[in-house]
Amino acid sequence: MQMQDFPDGLPFMKMHGLGNDFVVIDSRGRGAVTTPALARAVGDRHRGVGFDQLAEIRDGEDSDICLDFWNSDGSRAGACGNATRCVAAYVMAETGRDQLSIRTARGLLQAARVGEVTWVNMGPPQLDWREVPLARAMEVTELPLPGNPVAVGMGNPHCVFVVPDAGAVALTVDGPKIETDPLFPEKTNVEFVEVRNRAEVRMRVWERGTGVTLACGSGACATVVATALRGLTDRQVKMELDGGWLELDWREDGVWMGGPVAHVFDGTFPAAFLAEVA
User: 250 and 264 in contact (C-beta within 8 Å)?
Assistant: First the structure.
């Protein structure tokens, strides 16, 4: 669809999971509308609305819904765990259901509501260098980078560093250096995790195409995989992020992530705003 197809404006929702914030556009019943230009304009926190990621809901063919993700720089995001949880909570509340199937670039995901907590299965981790992807053949636990990080694919690439103090990491310095390292042909998200015990960790994140965020769902999933592979934690972990707490459970069918969601407000992008970015 074209921007001129919305003379009365384009409705949207603002949601967040642990302060990891999203603009959600519901395009069910019509064609997709998001373009790189629209994502950049809406993602501008001074002249638009601002978001960590934009999520667009579409009609599903082999699933209840489809989800597409965009970064604030206009690039596509392959996965976004917290946005998936937010949208799943919205659709389940709308339909009165406790389970939902969601088609994303990551594949077919399952979501469930258990009490006040919304869970999503982000699928099995990708641990082959071609799937992450990395620039050349190597084990994902043996990267030629200082700090001995682990590479994990969760539908998007992640590079996880175990550090003694996550709060002391200079995210705006170390994050972009790793994000753009030639080892990652599609760039990478970067996580710094402090292991407190086998069941609790603290993680901070630099997101590819976005920067510092208060939380990252796919990054949280990648982190529990990395610490479990290193033998530092169990597969079931509570994780503190800058925005709050998540529960992670790496099961045989994938990495499940649970936590709170918030529907902040509804709004409409006016036709004049849309015309400027058409």
Answer: no
